[in-house]
């Protein structure tokens, strides 16, 4: 099983503010949906709750919510109390590619523990004020395998690039 993460990151590594997205990039949302569809996804509880209620749980995906709260329940979700346990659940259910979708602490923990094989990063080419950050990408560990650049248009206020990184073995 491949363990991946998917995230949109500003030039200054900001990924959010006040438990919300800062920018609106419809093609990024479409990319996220198409990439994670029919897969297991792991999200932290706060990140999960930040998703508008009408979209929770994310459809056509196995939603695994990671929380320290032993009494947290959410219909249609698998609840896990450790990142390793969440990953094991996906593996036990024959997942081929698992996606960690946030938030900041989950990304940090997964990267620090060396649990990630692939990263799908939308680089938003702009600096933003925020309170949640993505770790620096260590080019000694990660190899850029593809990049698709996108320009500003009527629906996208900022230029951005879809980049896939794979861990260097």
Distance N to C terminus: 16 Å
Question: Strand portion, in percent?
Answer: 25-35%
> How confident overall, as mean pLDDT?
96
Into which percent range does the helicity of residues fall? 10-25%
As residue ranges, the low-confidence spans are none
Order of helices and strands: EEHEHEEHEHEEEE
Radius of gyration using CA atoms only: 15 Å
For the record, the CATH class is Alpha Beta
Number of structurally distinct domains? 1
Tell me the CATH topology. Answer: Dihydrofolate Reductase, subunit A
CATH superfamily heading? Dihydrofolate Reductase, subunit A
The spatial strand order of the largest sheet comes to 5-4-3-6-1-7-10-9
Structural class call reads alpha/beta
SS element count, helices: 4
Write the layout of secondary structure elements.
Blueprint: E1 2-10, E2 14-16, H1 26-36, E3 40-44, H2 45-50, E4 62-66, E5 77-80, H3 83-92, E6 97-100, H4 104-112, E7 118-124, E8 132-133, E9 142-150, E10 160-167
Parallel strand pairs: 1-6, 1-7, 3-4, 3-6, 4-5
Antiparallel strand pairs: 2-8, 7-10, 9-10
């Amino acid at each position: 099983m491949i363990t991946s993460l998917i995230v949109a990151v500003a030039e200054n590594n900001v990924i959010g503010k006040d438990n919300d997205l800062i920018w609106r990039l419809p093609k990024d949302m479409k990319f996220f949906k198409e990439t994670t569809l029919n897969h297991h996804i792991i999200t932290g509880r706060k990140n999960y709750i930040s998703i508008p209620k009408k979209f929770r749980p994310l459809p056509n995906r196995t939603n695994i919510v990671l929380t320290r709260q032993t009494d947290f329940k959410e219909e249609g979700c698998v609840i896990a109390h450790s990142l390793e346990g969440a990953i094991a659940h996906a593996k036990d259910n024959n997942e081929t590619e698992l996606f960690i979708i946030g938030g900041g602490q989950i990304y940090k923990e997964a990267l620090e523990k060396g649990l990630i094989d692939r990263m799908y990063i939308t680089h938003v080419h702009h600096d933003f004020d925020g309170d949640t950050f993505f770790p620096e990408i260590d080019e000694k560990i990660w190899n850029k395998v593809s990049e698709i650049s996108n320009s500003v248009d009527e629906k996208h206020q900022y230029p951005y690039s879809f980049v896939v990184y794979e861990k260097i073995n």
